[in-house]
Amino acid sequence: MARPDIVLCVLGVSVVEHRMTSSLHMQIRQASKAYAGIPALIDAALDLHGGEALGLVGENGAGKSTLIKLLAGLESPDSLELRLNGGRVTIPDSAAARQLGLRFIHQELAIVPALNVAENLFLNNPLPRIGGAFVNRAALYRLAREALRRLGIDHIDLRQRASLLSPGDAMLVKIASAFVGADEQKQPLIYIMDEPTAALNQAEAQLLYAVIERLRARGCALLVVTHRLHEIFRIAQRVTVMRDGMVVNTHQIAETSAGELIHEMTGSSAAHQPQSGESRVGEALPPPHQPIDATSAMPPSDFSGRPRGVTNARPLLRVRDLQTDALTATSFHLRAGEIVGVAGLAGAGRSQLLQALMGIDKLRAGTIELGGEALRNPAPAVCWGRGMAYLPEERRSQGLLLGGRISHNMTLPHLGRFRRWLALIDRRAENLRSQQLSRSVQLRATGIQQRLRELSGGNQQKVMFARAILAKPRLVLLDEPTRGVDVSAKRDIYRLIRELAAGGAGILLVSSELDELLALCGRILIMRDRRLVGEASTADLDERALLSLMFAGT
Amino acid sequence: MRYNPAHIWQPYRPTVTGYALPQRSHLSSFLRRYGTLIGFMAIVLFFWTQRPQTFMTLPNWVNITRQMSILGVVAFTMTIVMVTGDFDLSVGAMASLVGIVAGSAFQNGGGLGQAVALALLVGVAGGALNGLLVAGLGISAFVATLGTLTVFRGLALYTSGGASIYGRVIPAEFSSFGRGAIVIGELRIPNLTLLAALALALVFVILRFTIVGRRLYAIGGNREAARFGGIRIARLRMLSFVISGLGAAVAGLMLFSRLSTAHPTQGEGLMLQAIAAVFLGMTMNEEAQPNVLGTLVGVLILGVLANGLTQMQIDTYIQQILTGVIIILAVTLSSLSQQGLRAPEWLRRLLPERGEAA
Which of B83, B207, B224, B228 to probe by mutation at the A interface, max A CB count within 10 Å? Predict the structure, then answer.
């Protein structure tokens, strides 16, 4: 994996076991919660022990986030029996949760862009004060620096405005805020992390793993929700599987496998399975010959977008010397039917490349040719119209109208295609098309009129895919398409990507999940320091080699 | 390029598994959607009982629609601006300015057509100026339209020398329009009411059925997502301000015609009332979006309050206090129910459990 030796050096971690004498124990029983009559969590039971990390896995909508909201005091439970070290406790609000020693890293980014990094670190923590009313800025910066150091981060400027942070750095800041002022020597805490690595690249995730190790060694209890199964095997001692609001099973990590977990998450019953006959659970497993550790939902490598004897085909996309405010000297090409990956550490300029192509960032220099025609002064409206489709990194803030209906979200860039009588929307056609798309992306919803806000993350992402494929695009730009998406949705998304490529679309895929890049793409563009530094064929590449290319090209 | 519906294979089947379809909790959802409408009906009922002979009569309601028509036109077009998340503070000043422009045109020997055309042109130009400042230069709508409000008011005062324009310079056809009506049997529908109804219908169709309307809502819903999704934001925001300027100009002409007087500040009250009406309307929408039917109810509430309280001979100053209180009350109730306000314990015991009905 990603050079744990280096990471540990940076941290200066001394992994010395000094277990607390009185071991921490939190007992959760009969946790139930229903929203408007729909049970989201049914009689769940968990135990958290000091010195142990418990993994929690399950598809989107399995009830993991609901459980966390109950523990955080953000939602009031229908029933919940909670014991901390044997004593009965309740959590009426988030202050009470903090009082009990619970610390949370929630899934959604809660960063205030106008505040600086240090101030953001203290959003959920009491500010150090002078005389009761004034903020002690010196102490603020000292404590903030300590919190970041615990994560082994020294590249983030505490006085930088949060709006200037990359998504990965923003996530690190959020994670660090759980460590502000924490002192396990005095009191071991209970850390509850909901998808902490979803927005992190592998190197950043390694930092977090090391911190988790250390917290464990100091007697803290951890509950880690994640969709990345290999993470569970890396950090957890036990793992609990949830499905449909219920706890299905809890395993010792040594006694289970990724296959078993996926099986339990998706359920053997037909309820969740798309109607097609083939074994989808089996398909999700990594092919045996892949040199990948216990991974989830891997697309089989034989289905990759490696160019299949495409001879003398003119490139669909040709980019020369592209330059924007966030990107320099980038040239590459992409053929129809090809899936090309873009790899790089956070801040390497991967998203900025897609944004430049889509005309979101202004071009300073360079040319973009699509299908042999130059794309001059691209703008999103022009690019969609020319047969490009774009799935942005932050689907909630950059992609979706959360208050809008499913059909409206799908047709947003394509409304011109549903024109009737000069200016009106042909709603019949719009609805029919949305229904058709819902089927082909296997959306789980009550109907196309449902509001996006009510869908799970995976289904929201499927709506984004439906939007991208509505007009049979020539070029599809995908930025982290499987982030925060459950196993079965991931599987569907891989299928969609492959189908798009098979149908002749060119695909540029930005992803932080290296196994995903290796399995889906024929070629991978490597970006570093806001520029394209190289290209590698996946034929003779493994994760370790790719990672080292991303770091420095050793 | 148009999508051909003949290529559909099968109707969409919902693929939700397990549980019943979501149903909203009864009370808060009900309050959210209909609270303002119930409030409106309560106000009507109150005046009906207080003034049984005069209030609930056809002539009085026709009268109310005429009194509200000018505010209506401003509020309906303001709804479009507010759909995109902006607002336009300059509409009242624009309405005043337009009256002065038309009046000056009459004074300088202009005909009816010339004066009206010039007035509408000024409205469009003023709206375009707002749009340019907000969408083009990126100044916040509050600051930009506050600035143009002052500019428009200054222009009106300067052009008129601070004096009203009235009397014989105004063509008879122009002033009679504002007092005129179309007679259908017993019913006399005032021209102004018809104009407002026309504006309502236009805005309703734009927002509900057109591509432009859908895009405007997208901009208001998530500006960045709309931009990334290929919507030309600056253009549409510009358009919304032009429509609002045009609406203000029409309202200014209606006011001038009805009063047969153009005073450089006579439209001032329109802006705050129009924004209040849109806010009242937003309380009736599930997603708290501006919507023109809601705005209509908002305008009706303001109009009925003014009419009823006047009939009860309540001081106009007190009327203002009451109107303000009602606006705050409606918006507060709505936002509380939106946050999923939990009913107090004693009330909850009386209500059926959530989801029990399922």
Answer: B228
